[in-house]
Amino acid sequence: MGLKIKITIENQNLLAELNDSVTARKIAEFLPSEFEMSRWGDEYYGSCGVQAGLEHDARTLMQVGEIAYWPPASELCIFFGPTPASSGSQPEAASEVNPVGKITYDCSVLKTLASSVKVKIYGL
Q1: DSSP class per residue in 93-104
Q2: Any long-range contacts for 22-29 (C-beta under 8 Å, 24+ apart)?
Q3: Which domain holds residue 102?
Q4: pLDDT 10s digits, 80-100
Q5: Helix (H, G, I), strand (E, B), or coil: what is residue 79?
Q6: What count of other Cβ atoms lies within 10 Å of the Cβ of residue 86?
Q7: What is the CATH number of the domain that holds 110?
Q8: What's the whole-model pTM score?
């Protein structure tokens, strides 16, 4: 893994690490960053200001706690459970996303938050 980050969502702090992908490095260049995220099932997504294309390891099936980037809308995604696209309990993106990192501790607190949230992301 690469850069350690802190994600603050509605007074909840989550520690995470970005991987060493091209997209993750672009995201790191934009830190600190603050933007709005909306909820889609157990996923938060929001425009983060980064422009990147689809990478070779892009996929739709994700793991709980994974952070990804969705190129069609330049959005950062945080997966913490099944989404409307999921056929089971595993998170699934609407279409292929670039995995860029992972929350390093329990992210179940996200299930208790609103449908629209303010997010701050800092490098540590």
Answers
A1: EEEEEEEEEEES
A2: 22/52, 22/55, 23/50, 23/52, 23/55, 23/69, 23/98, 23/100, 24/100, 24/101, 26/50, 26/51, 26/52, 27/69, 27/76, 27/100, 28/2, 28/3, 28/123
A3: 4-123
A4: 999 999 999 999 999 999 999
A5: strand
A6: 19
A7: 2.40.100.20
A8: 0.95
